[in-house]
Amino acid sequence: MERCPWPFLSFLTSLVLGGSLGLPSAVMAASISSAPLEVRQTLENIEAAANDRDLDRVMGYYSPAFDSDTGFDYAGLRQTLTTLWQTYRTLTYDIELLSWEAIGGGIYSVETRTRVNGVELRSDRELTLSAEVTSRQRLQNGQVDYQQVLAETSRLSSGANPPKVEIQLPTTLTPGQSFSFDTVVTEPLEGRSLMGAAVDEQVRATDFFEPRSVVLDVLTAGGIYKLGIAPGTADQRWISAVSIREDGLVVDTRRVQVQP
């Protein structure tokens, strides 16, 4: 299986990881229109540098002391972006500012939504990527020094007619909670064979681009229906649905937060 590398598209293109930065939860974010020029320019510059595939410019907006909730530091971020751009020859980035908060001393808490679209060309097929990450990050002196993910979805498709699916999956779970993961193909099978699998992985920075082996099952009911149990401690999971037909395939990945 080749999982869509979305979680790190967010790292590598803009301020797109979200979560708690130790800021008071009761603080209300200021309006977007009142965002300081420094904040707006930093976002615009990162977006432009990513669309230009200019590695040095992108990394100039990340602190050498950069850290994240998935184990990426500055060096790991740079290496992953290099690998990503070698894999996907065309990628476009769009960054939307959702909220901001001045912390003081030139530090801002910024929440953004980043959308990424791209194509990977191979000798035997073309893979289309679409992804979206909502995140909150800390900006200090025009650089990102910390970021975490709030929400994340990605879709990797190939073929003339990839299956059209709807995903039903909680975005947050408590430790040990049972949950259902349903992937419904929304179009008639019309006699075509459908195969699929559900994959549950821990979010981590290591071995991200390594291929995964997946055992596919024949799907007679037009979808994937699985029951799962969240880990017993706080965690973050990538849960993917793989759906394959003779005329196309789709891999849909969601991030699920396991929070006490």
What key attributes describe this structure?
alpha+beta; 10-stranded mixed sheet; 13 strands; 47% strand; globular; disordered N terminus
Walk me through the topology.
Blueprint: H1 6-13, H2 37-51, H3 55-59, E1 62-68, H4 74-87, E2 90-104, E3 107-121, E4 126-140, E5 143-158, E6 165-168, E7 172-173, E8 178-185, E9 194-202, E10 217-218, E11 223-229, E12 235-245, E13 248-258
Helix pairs in contact: 1-4
Tell me the span between the first and last alpha carbons.
Answer: 31 Å
H/E order of the elements?
HHHEHEEEEEEEEEEEE
The radius of gyration over CA amounts to: 19 Å
The helix tally amounts to 4
Protein structure class? alpha+beta
**Beta-strand content bin:** over 45%
Quaternary structure annotation: single chain
- The helicity comes to 10-25%
Number of strands: 13
Provide an overview of this structure.
The chain is of the alpha+beta class and 260 residues long. Helices cover 16% and strands 47% of the residues. It has helices at residues 6-13, 37-51, 55-59, 74-87, and strands at 62-68, 90-104, 107-121, 126-140, 143-158, 165-168, 172-173, 178-185, 194-202, 217-218, 223-229, 235-245, 248-258. The strands form two sheets. Strands 1, 2, 3, 4, 5, 7, 9, 10, 12 and 13 form a ten-stranded mixed beta sheet that branches. Strands 6-8-11 form a three-stranded antiparallel beta sheet, with no helix packed on it. Helix 1 crosses helix 4. The chain is globular, with a radius of gyration of 19 Å. Residues 1-28 have low confidence and may be disordered.
